[in-house]
Amino acid sequence: MPLMLTSTAFADGKPIPARHARDADNLSPHLIWSDVPDGTRCFVLIVEDPDAPSGIFRHWGVFDIPGGQTELQEGFGSKPSGSVRFARNDFGAHRYDGPQPPRGHGVHHYIFRIAALDVPNLGVPEDAGVEEIWHAARRHMLEEAELIGTYER
What is the model's pTM? Predict the structure, then answer.
């Protein structure tokens, strides 16, 4: 089976609960991945909103997740632990910042993407942005999976 990404907070294609929104509790959702491909040495996870008025907006980037890890607990996005690192999101912060679409802009889709990599770490600068880490990850990708949540203000 291919790599799979799920959440206990919302089902694929369904609304993300308000507690995970930036203007509420801003808690990253519990995420679980399974069917990890052989040879995986680390993971990269990003969250993007392709419906943002200015184009793709990147809310979170997590990298150097150990290859044996298969989940991130709810609220993990406020502070990394161990070897795990956070990229700079488009708000300018190194953390999870949840959905915050403009009021009245309609439903936005938040794409959670995880990639299994064949290297033990990504080797990017400390201040790397989400787009930069995803670009670097593509060179080492074994498989990727996505989970889409929606949110509207």
Answer: 0.97
